[in-house]
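sry for the spam today, last one i promise. struct tokens for design, 107 residues
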């Protein structure tokens, strides 16, 4: 049987995936240098790669930025894309992603 709730959740997910792709495309452009400058990363932009979803024990990171060839430690940036306001549990999930990478990050 067709249910409206399922239709709405699939439609919402579809829009979120499109938004993730658009954000990832924008970040691969000039936005990445602005992001790295904001976080005071002292590495050139070409040393980083912007990836799509990354699986973690806590869930999936929507956009994952890391160094291409880390030496010693690595620098990470995790981005969650939402089509609406982030709820407290989604913010908590983002913190858990950050903690997951914190032990391997040099910054």
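last one done:
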């Amino acid at each position: 049987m067709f249910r409206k709730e399922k239709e709405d959740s699939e439609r919402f997910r579809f829009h979120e995936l499109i938004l993730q792709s658009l954000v990832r495309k924008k970040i691969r452009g000039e936005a990445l240098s602005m992001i790295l400058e904001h976080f005071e990363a002292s590495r050139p932009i070409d040393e980083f790669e912007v990836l799509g979803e990354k699986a973690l024990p806590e869930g999936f990171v929507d956009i994952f930025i890391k160094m291409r060839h880390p030496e010693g430690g690595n620098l990470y940036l995790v981005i969650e894309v939402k089509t609406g306001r982030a709820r407290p549990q989604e913010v908590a999930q983002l913190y858990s992603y950050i903690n997951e990478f914190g032990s391997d990050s040099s910054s």
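The helical segments are 4-38, 88-102. ok im logging off now
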